[in-house]
């Protein structure tokens, strides 16, 4: 199938499957370029002790692949412009590393990637963690029916499913669909 139409919560979403493909460790440099460009939006928003450059290192991304994170990318004109990953665990699937190049943010890239991941992960509990002050990200997921957890639930879920430092746990939220 070249193009697709899916109905999510009474919204018809169109996307071209050929634009979205799974990436591997051999694509680390392209994936990092997207992540580190897009993450610049967090600078000055998240706590200073949580910000670092690059936002994600090559070794961190390689470790994610080793931990069974699958990264999907959105291509436009043979250029990777957005990424979004999933990590299937025992009883949930985590959405990981959702980023779109700064120049392409707001053009439907994230929407297409999330619709694709929702389509291939139907009837599964999906969790996504993001920075509490990244209000744009929280609103994005809420548009797709994700519900935000309480602070207490968030801390429990982050400790159970993510490997992140305590200062990141204190400054994050978890949403579920």
Structural features, described:
Helices cover 32% and strands 31% of the residues. It has 177 residues and is of the alpha+beta class. 27% of the residues are buried. The two termini are 27 Å apart. A hairpin with a 4-residue loop joins β5 (79-88) and β6. The chain has a single domain (3-176), classed as 3-Layer(aba) Sandwich (Aminopeptidase). The strands form two sheets. The protein has a seven-stranded mixed beta sheet, with helices on both faces. It has helices at 28-38, 58-66, 109-120, 135-143, 151-161, 166-170, and strands at residues 3-8, 11-16, 20-23, 69-76, 79-88, 93-100, 126-131, 147-148, 172-176. It is built from six helices and nine strands.
Give the CATH topology: Aminopeptidase
Sheet-strand content, in percent, reads: 25-35%
Number of continuous helical runs: 6
Shape field: globular
Give me the side-by-side strand order of the main sheet: 3-4-5-6-7-9-8
**Helix and strand succession?**
EEEHHEEEHEHEHHE
Instruction: Please state the structural category.
Output: alpha+beta
Mean pLDDT: 89
Tally of structural domains: 1
- How far do the termini sit from each other? 27 Å
Question: Please, what is the CATH homologous superfamily?
Answer: Gcn5-related N-acetyltransferase (GNAT)
Second CATH tier, the architecture: 3-Layer(aba) Sandwich
Q: Fraction of residues in helices?
A: 25-40%
Rg from Cα? 15 Å
In terms of per-residue confidence, which ranges show pLDDT below 50 for 5 or more consecutive residues? Answer: 1-14
């Amino acid at each position: 199938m070249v193009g697709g139409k899916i109905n999510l919560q009474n919204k018809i979403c169109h996307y071209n499957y050929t634009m979205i493909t799974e990436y591997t460790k051999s694509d680390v440099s392209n994936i990092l370029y997207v992540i580190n460009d897009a993450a610049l939006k967090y600078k000055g928003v998240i706590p200073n002790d949580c910000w670092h450059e690059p936002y994600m290192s090559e070794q961190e991304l390689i470790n994610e692949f080793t931990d069974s994170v699958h990264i999907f990318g959105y291509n436009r004109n043979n250029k990777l412009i957005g990424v979004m990953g999933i990590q299937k665990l025992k009883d949930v699937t985590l959405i990981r590393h959702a980023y779109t190049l700064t120049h392409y943010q707001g053009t439907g890239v994230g929407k297409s990637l999330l619709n694709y991941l929702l389509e291939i992960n139907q009837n599964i509990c999906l969790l996504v963690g993001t920075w509490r002050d990244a209000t744009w990200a929280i609103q994005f997921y809420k548009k797709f029916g994700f519900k935000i957890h309480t602070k207490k639930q968030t801390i429990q879920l982050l400790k159970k499913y993510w490997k992140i430092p305590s200062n990141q746990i204190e400054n994050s939220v978890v949403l579920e669909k």
